[in-house]
Amino acid sequence: MNTARINKRAAQEAIAGPAELGGYYPDGLTETAIDALIEEVDRELANEQHTVTVRVERSFTDARRARRAERRAGREALRSLPARIEPADLAGEVAA
After folding, report:
1. Which residue ranges make up each domain of the chain?
2. What are the CA-CA distances from residue 49 to residues 37, 53, 61, 94 (Å)?
């Protein structure tokens, strides 16, 4: 079985590409422009992650606040009742 062999210099030239392409960017973006785009994307992702974290924290807080408000409303309803309710006199009456 024959295997293809390539020497080190030929491999480096194949990886590096032709020498005349040095400084040529086919998409028009230089390294600094690409780095700036990457930084911008990183900032956007960090802001998005912060927003998600705040939303999650507030969703738990909102549920907690809703439950507390419900309990307070129940206590206020109980406080609004008279202190003592007199039992009805049912003697002599027939329940229908």
Report:
1. 55-79
2. 18, 6, 18, 69
With residue 53 as reference, give the H or E element that holds it.
Answer: helix 31-80
DSSP label at residue 93 = P
Tokens standing for residue 63 = 């549920």
Q: Taken in order 66, 72, 77, 80, is the CA torsion positive or negative?
A: negative
CA atoms of 24 and 8, how far apart (whole Å): 25
pLDDT tens-digit profile of 14-59?
A: 776 655 556 666 677 788 888 899 999 999 988 888 877 776 666 6
